[in-house]
Amino acid sequence: MTITAFLAFAALSLFAAISPGPAVLMAARTGLTEGFAAGAMLAVGIGEGAVFWASAAMFGLNIVFAAAPALLWALKIGGGAYLVWIGIKLWRDAKTPFNTEDTRALPRSPMSAFRLGLVTQLSNPKPAVMFSAIFLGTVPPTTPIWVYSALLAVVMLNETVWNILVARIFSTSITRARYISLKTIIDRSFGGLLAVLGVRVALT
């Protein structure tokens, strides 16, 4: 695996972490309602859940690589189209206010915050599809095991650090207001980049 491909994987997995969804919503809500410490532990749980989905995609892809090359092509096209769809959805919904309301029970300890983050990530099928597309587009089948381990570490780092940052932002009232005021610009920037990367995944 080349350095360029590794960096492409890191960038795509970062965009997957940043993409608005249940995990980011829960990190924002926890930062708002319970403070930064609970939000940080929740983010670690989200990172662990992402590693689970990435590992499942990684091992599943090895089987597909060996058994059905035609399915790889179809999955690559489908995964790229999914990334483009997410990008378009981000752009289209950029002006929608960020909703931090949720009716689930709040975590009352660091461990319960961790579990809530893990369950939130595992209950969302989007990362499985996203990581499958990312692995197909950037990771060759001959990649050694130690590189796969490094890629999983990147996934963990991206998901955990990003959601810790989200929890920190939303735990501070002033920065929360500023973030929300820039939501349209930020979401459209991410949406455009995801769409471009989705086309690249489908065509490489």
Notable traits:
204 residues, mainly alpha, 9 helices
What does this structure look like?
The chain is an all-alpha fold. The chain has one domain. Helices cover 82% and strands 0% of the residues. It has nine helices and no strands.
Separate helix tally: 9
Uncertain segments:
none
* Radius of gyration, in angstroms, nearest whole number: 17 Å
> How many beta-strand runs?
0
Strand content: under 5%
Global structural class: mainly alpha
**Tally of discrete structural domains:** 1
Q: What's the SSE pattern?
A: HHHHHHHHH
**Which outline best applies?**
globular
Please tell me the overall pLDDT. Answer: 79
- Biggest beta sheet summary: none
Cα end-to-end separation: 15 Å
Helix content: over 70%
In short:
This protein is an all-alpha fold. It is built from nine helices and no strands.
How are the elements arranged and paired?
Blueprint: H1 3-18, H2 22-34, H3 36-67, H4 69-92, H5 110-122, H6 126-138, H7 145-170, H8 173-181, H9 183-203
Helix pairs in contact: 1-6, 1-7, 2-3, 2-7, 3-5, 3-6, 3-7, 4-6, 4-9, 6-9
